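yo, FecR protein domain-containing protein is done. seq:
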Amino acid sequence: MKKAGNYRQYVLKDFLCDEYFQDWILKPNKENNAFWEEWLRANPGKKKEVELAKSILLNIDFKYSKPDQLKIQTSLDQALITIEALEQKPVNPGRFLKFARSWKVAAVLIPLAVISSLIFWRITPRGFYDIKTGYGKISRLTLPDSSIVILNANSSVRYGKKWHKGSPRELWLNGEAFFEVKHLDSDHKIENFERFIVHTENTIVEVLGTSFDIRERRGKTEISLQKGSIKVRFTKTERQPVFMKPGDMLLVDSVNVIHRSSNIENALNASSWKEKELILSNPTLSEIFRYLEDAYGKSFILEDPRLANKRLNGPILIESLDDALFVMSTALNISFTNEGDSIRVNFK
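structure:
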């Protein structure tokens, strides 16, 4: 299939109409995988349009029969109106057929009139699961490849209902989750579909088979690797990728790597919330309260500033918020007063 020479000028409808792009999404092979992966690395600004075009194509029920000419014109005009409205450009429906010079292209775009709502998949995605946990709730998920995700409280994850061979396994995380990734590599040669990728606000974490925890809160992302290996890329900086080994912990914000350490015990403790415990390394009350605020949706008000730097060693039960408050009250001789969405903290 012939490649076009001006992909940098493409917008959404151009990708949808391009036969070489269609073949990459629907019939991937080593040659077109290599071309498009290299092209996306060189043109990161086009990633959103490519992902949206990919989502649309994968959710179309293809039929290659030749339809009535009037129906073609009507359906394609409607599809163009929808697409160009998304791009916020003026529309001239009568010129649409010049984008569809083959029946294969027409067959791709005709269903868009019926499923045009897929264009807004970020708002109402039909080809994706959107899973969200409430405050104080933990959920265990099994992904299409049998990998396991344990989603912490006040967190959400999005992933495709079907994972297509030839494409990476991808999901998008907001909050905190623990991953046990199924290992698919059987010949030590990494194929595209064997890649497992987790997107957060600040990072793109790529693995094969491994166990790790990602906490994405308050503009910062903390990654704790328990076994296997992962590569961490950064979404908002040109910094080189970081390769992590078991025991490594990485804390980043939108610009910098704030902290990097290696301690297998601390890395294991990072996911202690799965067992309804909070195990931190000699934390201050301020650090504990930040975690509880994220997990339970309450804000803590310190009546005495000296409380902020008090420390508590040992695990804290977090089966419920009351359990956590009882442990801290007993161990540190402090009191809690519940005032709806906030909790006041003081010495007894």
